[in-house]
Write a structure and sequence with these properties.
Layout lengths: L6 H19 L19 E7 L2 H9 L4 E9 L8 H4 L7 E8 L6 H12 L7 E2 L2 E2 L5 E5 L2 H16 L10 E4 L3 E3 L7 H4 L4 H17 L7
Helix pairs in contact: 1-7, 2-4, 2-7
């Protein structure tokens, strides 16, 4: 989110950002062959994803049917360094992440992964996403249990094996050791600031891609 510093910087990065969003939203993504089944009961489950600025990831998952709540935050580092000014340095081990609380009777973990890989970000980018660069913007799936790890790793192998993307998937599958909610001003940023140039250029196209590509999943 360094690009937010000036509108000029945003404008200069627009082409790269739009290219990144387009790459993620125009590739046909098959459903995962390994997935959990829809649950009979709606006991809530949790998933954590990282893929660039958390504003966009949060905005996408807030529009997925079956998602109860999406919270912007930090994962991968220690609680003491889970603060934006520190994370922005790229030295804390944290990635800007989003915790997704979902209803497993309405959406599976594999479906959430499908959304993540296809429209939420470009999973082939290494330590960057659109105009933002640094390890805090890396692509990662933080797994809460062995089942999530199995599904995530199998799906990455499936997509790489099928040559879905022009480059190998760079997403790291890592055990979740903690999720720390971001500052209040980061929460629901895309919804609260739809006219922000950063949101218009980088994140609104992702939500639109979700609406078009996954009409059955999209909710307003």
């Amino acid at each position: 989110m360094k690009v937010r510093a000036t509108l000029a910087a945003i404008a200069l990065s627009a082409a790269a950002a739009c290219s990144s969003a387009a790459a993620a939203s125009t590739v046909t993504i098959p459903a995962p062959k390994v997935d959990d089944a829809l649950a009979a009961k709606s006991d809530q489950k949790m998933a954590v994803f990282a893929g660039g600025c958390f504003w966009g990831i949060q905005a996408v998952f807030q529009h997925v049917n079956g998602v109860v709540m999406a919270t912007a935050g930090y994962s991968g580092g220690q609680e003491a360094t889970a603060h934006y000014e520190m994370v922005e340095s790229g030295t804390t081990g944290h990635a800007e992440s989003v915790q997704v609380i979902y209803d497993p009777s309405k959406v599976t973990y594999g479906t959430l992964l499908r959304v993540f890989f296809s429209v939420a970000h470009d999973p082939t980018e290494i330590n960057r996403q659109g105009p933002d660069d640094g390890p805090q913007y890396r692509s990662a799936v933080f797994t809460a249990n062995p089942e999530q790890e199995k599904i995530a790793k199998a799906y990455i192998a499936q997509l790489d094996g099928a040559g879905v993307f022009a480059s190998p998937i760079a997403t790291k599958v890592t055990e979740l050791t903690g999720f720390y909610a971001a500052e209040d001003y980061h929460q629901n940023y895309a919804t609260k600031h739809p006219s922000d140039p950063y949101i218009m250029i980088n994140d609104a196209p992702k939500v639109e891609a979700l609406r078009k590509r996954f009409a059955e999943l999209y909710k307003r």
